[in-house]
């Protein structure tokens, strides 16, 4: 089992797919990493040698912000917006949609489960 950036990668998946289990690495970055290291895209994690896994790990550490650092950076950006008191920060504070979506109906993901209002039935 290969462990990269604190994540156990599934051994029976292709390298490009398995790298996407790391927070902050999507299809494009996974393909870029495999290209830089020089591994064929059809190979599986279980077929990689320790040296190849080490090369992948070093490439990710040197080039990309992933996992805990990325989560921390995102949280700090949101906190900065909330401290500024700008519109986006206020929407984050209130738990409402940030990017202009309607809230009259929908927006249940951000607002949570609908609360019944007494006396509304007619």
Helix content: 40-55%
Strand residues, percent: under 5%
CATH architecture of the largest domain: Orthogonal Bundle
| Succession of helices and strands | EEHHHHHH
Number of strands: 2
User: How are the strands of the largest sheet arranged?
Assistant: 1-2
CATH topology group of the largest domain: Helicase, Ruva Protein, domain 3
Q: Could you list the spans in which at least 5 consecutive residues all have pLDDT below 50?
A: none
The CATH first-level class of the largest domain comes to Mainly Alpha
Principal-axis shape: elongated
Total helical segments: 6
Largest sheet: 2 strands, antiparallel
| Count of all domains | 2
**What do the pLDDT scores average to?**
92
What radius of gyration results from the CA coordinates?
21 Å
Secondary structural class = mainly alpha
Whole-Å distance between the termini?
61 Å
InterPro entries: Rbsml_uS13_C (IPR027437), Ribosomal_uS13 (IPR001892), Ribosomal_uS13-like_H2TH (IPR010979), Ribosomal_uS13_bac-type (IPR019980), Ribosomal_uS13_CS (IPR018269)
Protein name: Small ribosomal subunit protein uS13
Family: Belongs to the universal ribosomal protein uS13 family.
Subunit structure: Part of the 30S ribosomal subunit. Forms a loose heterodimer with protein S19. Forms two bridges to the 50S subunit in the 70S ribosome.
